[in-house]
Amino acid sequence: MKDLIYLSYSEIKKKLNDGSLSSKDLTSAYLKRIEETDSKIKAFLELDKTKILKQADESDKRRKEGKLLSEFDGIPIGIKDNICITGEITSCSSKILENFRSPYDATVITRLKEKGFVLFPRLNMDEFAMGSSTENSAFQTSKNPFDPERIPGGSSGGSAAAVAASMLPVSLGSDTGGSIRQPASLCGIWGLKPTYGRVSRYGLVAYASSLDQIGPFSNDMEGISDLLQILSGLDPKDQTTAKVNPFESNSVVEIDWKGKKIGVMKTEEFNFSEDVNTRYLEVLKSLESKGATLVPLDFSLLKFAIPVYYLIATAECSSNLSRFDGIRYGLRKEGSGKLDDLYSDSRTAGFGKEVKRRILLGTFSLSSGYYDAYYGKAQKARVLIRKQYAEFFKSVDVIVQPTSPTTAFKVGEKTKDPIQMYQADILTTSVNLAGVPAINCPAGLDQNGLPIGIQLTTSHFDESKLLGYAKSLASLELCKISLPKEIP
Ligand code: GLN
C-alpha cells in the first residue's frame, strides 16, 4: 500500500486501466501520506477526506459497470487555491476571501470532472499568486520536501510540494511570471506554462490577465502531456483562448538532438549560483555530444524583464483586485458605518503586505501623469521582448536555460528585501511577457541535495515539440532525480 504513492503518473494510469489498482486504494494511500507528512510540508490549506473518497468510490463504481469516463478516470489531482470549484472555498491564500465559496467551476475543473479525475483541493500559494516562495500566504508557508527548512518556490508552492512529497502524482498551478516553472524547479518535478491562450482562464482568480496561464505539475512527462491535452482548447467563456489545432498528448515523441539548434545563454553575463551554472553547462555539453549545435543568444533584454513584468503585472492586479471591496466580494468591516471607510477598512484588514504593495505600485503607474512614463513604456518594452523571442526562433529550435538562478533558499532568507525576491524570476518572467510556452525539467541535485531545473522554451503553440524535447532531456542520465521518500 505504501509503495503506491511512489508510483509515477504513467504507472498509476496503467495500473488503474489494467484493473490491478482501484482508485479507492490509490486515493486512500495518498490521504494517508498527506496525514503523515503534511504537518511538515504544509501544502494543503484544507482537505475534505469524505468528499475525496466519494469521488474515488464513484470512479471505481463506473469502472465496475464498464462506464468509465476516460482513461484518466480515478486519477488523483491537486488544485491550487485560486481555481474555482463549485461549492468549495477558493481563498487565494488571502484573508479577504477566507470564506468565499465559488458558485461555479473553472473551465479546467469542468474538463477534469468530465474525465473522472479525483480532485484534491486546496493547495497553498502566495496570496493572489504574488510571490516566489509561498511566504506571502496569509495562512502558512509551505516547505520544500527535499529540505523543510527551505521554501518550495512560489506562487504555486503548495501544488509543487504536494507532488514532490509524493502526496499526489499531479496537480494544477498558475503561472503569471514563473509560478509553475520556478517551484517545479526548486522541487525537482516537471511544470509547464502553456502558450498564452492555450488554456482557458475562466474561473482562475485573475492576478494579471494578460500573463496568467493555468498549467500542470507532474512527477513524470506523461502527466504533463496528458493534462495539457485535457486542459487546453477553445473556450467561449474566455475570449483570449486561441483557435488553434488541439494539442494531442500522443503527438509528443522524444526528439533526436542531432542537427538541432539550441539557443543558449552566455552564463558569464548572469549571476547563477555555482551549482546551477555547472549543471547548466554539463547539460549543454551532453546535448552537444548528441549532435546539437549551441547558438549563443543575446539575452540583454532580460535585464528589463523584471521591471517590465512588475509594472505590467502590478497595473493589471490593481485593476483586477478592485472587486474585493467588502461589498461585491470578500471580508467586510463596517465599523464607522460610512461607505468609504467600509472599503478601506475591509481592504486594509483583508489584504496582506505584498498585495497592498503591488496595488499601490500598479495604481501609481496607471495614474495620469505617470502612465506614459511607466505603464506606457513598459508596454512598449514588452513588444520588444516579444519580437526578440520571434527573432530567436528564426535561428534556433528550442531555448535551453536554467529555470531559477539558484536552488531553493531558506525560509525567511529573502522576505526582507522584495527586490531580491523578485530576482528569483529573472529567467521566467520574459516568457510570460512574450506569451510563449516553457517547461521546467528536473536536472539532478546540487551539492546540498537540492533540485536544479532546466527551462525549455519554444515558439507560440509549439507545445508538441517543447514536450518532445523535454522528454528527450528526461532520458539523460544527468537529469535523473528521485523524489524524497522520507521527508527529513
Ligand atoms: N513571482 C512572480 C510574482 O511574484 C510570479 C508569480 C506568478 O507567476 N504568479 O509576481
From TrEMBL:
The gene is gatA. It comes from Leptospira kemamanensis. Allows the formation of correctly charged Gln-tRNA(Gln) through the transamidation of misacylated Glu-tRNA(Gln) in organisms which lack glutaminyl-tRNA synthetase. The reaction takes place in the presence of glutamine and ATP through an activated gamma-phospho-Glu-tRNA(Gln). PROSITE patterns: AMIDASES. One of its GO terms (molecular function) is glutaminyl-tRNA synthase (glutamine-hydrolyzing) activity. Belongs to the amidase family. GatA subfamily. The active site is at K80 (charge relay system), S155 (charge relay system), S179 (acyl-ester intermediate). This is Glutamyl-tRNA(Gln) amidotransferase subunit A. Heterotrimer of A, B and C subunits. It catalyses: L-glutamyl-tRNA(Gln) + L-glutamine + ATP + H2O = L-glutaminyl-tRNA(Gln) + L-glutamate + ADP + phosphate + H(+).
